[in-house]
Amino acid sequence: QVQLVESGGGLVQAGGSLRLSCAASGSSIRFNYMSWYRQAPGKQRDLVATITSGGFTNYGDSVKGRFTISRDNAKNTVYLDMNSLKPEDTAVYYCKDRSSGSWGQGTQVTVSS
């Protein structure tokens, strides 16, 4: 069973940047599709970005051109680089292993205006 731990969240001003990390343990995620989701207070959890085992990526419309998902298989880690952050990006960000269904515990991102 894969365990996922997110890190890198925090408080940032609008226009700033953050890098989130999702470290996997218990099993290799090298061949797994991995995704980042986010959930703002009172809202549903939305898909932000996905990366395939081959490195192909896709993004939600609201983050295209600002966020980049990547992976380092040697470190068994997936990243989400977030640039030009907006207050509406404020949410808890979760990592998910699409193959096993495992979720991380989430990391809070707060963007101030």
Can you tell me about this structure?
The structure is a single chain. This protein is mainly β. The protein is 0% helix and 51% strand. It has strands spanning 3-7, 10-13, 18-25, 34-39, 45-51, 57-59, 67-72, 77-82, 91-97, 107-112. It has a 6-stranded mixed sheet with strand order 2-10-9-4-5-6, with no helix packed on it. The protein is globular and about 40 Å long. The mean pLDDT is 97.
Characteristics of this structure?
four-stranded antiparallel sheet, globular, 113 residues, six-stranded mixed sheet, 10 strands, single chain
Short description:
The chain is mainly β. Helix content is 0%, strand content 51%.
List the helices and strands and how they pair.
Elements: E1 3-7, E2 10-13, E3 18-25, E4 34-39, E5 45-51, E6 57-59, E7 67-72, E8 77-82, E9 91-97, E10 107-112
Parallel strand pairs: 2-10
Antiparallel strand pairs: 1-3, 3-8, 4-5, 4-9, 5-6, 7-8, 9-10
